[in-house]
Design goal:
It is built from six helices and ten strands. Helices cover 28% and strands 28% of the residues. The longest helix is centred in the middle third of the chain and has 14 residues. The relative contact order is 0.14.
Length: 202
């Protein structure tokens, strides 16, 4: 994270390829549409202006060549791992948020025990009961940690794939917001039914 031109250029020069993303969400209006800055590729050719680099602190990272991504939402001790096939579309290869979620193949998958243990340790040390981890898996099977969102969006996973019961977990967790919470598997509140009810309200 930097706005020092020399530091930024030196870092990008050490990477085979690099990406840049905003520290906080950046939105603006253009032609009556709201635009947002996503994670994007960056090269030294993009970093010519000292004034622009100094005026806009950003996060610069070495680019990860991903096979797929994982959005792992936790409700206490309950971890839900969604596999995102972000590499299936050219537009979402760098940032899956750049396409309509409806076009993104998502399925719930088991999490490797060692990764699960590491993430549980992380969240407990951070003192968090709820949030979402973002990881990627590369061609060698390595899990690369990107970040933890303490208020990460998650209901869209069920909207895309109704078999991933996120709303049930949320409602049950709200009834028992404890560190040791585990979902009992009861299917009570489908997101699609709630969404249909909301849209029918005057």
């Amino acid at each position: 994270m930097s706005n020092d031109p020399a530091t930024v250029r030196d870092f990008v020069a050490t990477c085979v390829s690099a990406v840049v993303k905003p520290i906080t969400p950046m939105f603006w209006s253009l032609d009556d549409n709201v635009r947002a800055m996503a994670t994007r590729d960056v090269t030294l050719a993009d970093l010519q202006s000292d004034a622009a680099l100094s005026a806009c602190p950003m996060i610069y990272q070495e680019k990860v060549e991903k096979l797929f991504e994982l959005r792992i939402t936790f409700f206490g001790d309950e971890l839900v791992c969604g596999r995102l096939e972000s590499q299936g579309h050219q537009a979402s290869k760098t940032d899956f948020r750049t396409i309509d979620p409806a076009n993104l193949a998502v399925r719930e998958v088991p999490l490797e025990p060692a990764i699960r243990s590491s993430l549980q340790l992380f969240r407990k040390r951070a003192g968090l009961l709820h949030g979402s981890f973002d990881l990627a898996v590369d061609k060698d099977g390595n899990h690369i940690f990107f970040e933890i969102n303490e208020q990460g969006q998650f209901l869209w996973l069920e909207e895309v794939n109704p078999d991933i019961r996120m709303l049930d977990r949320l409602v049950s967790f709200m009834e028992d917001p404890s560190d040791g919470f585990r979902w009992d598997g009861r299917e009570r509140f489908a997101f699609s039914e709630w969404e249909a009810q909301e849209s029918s309200c005057p």
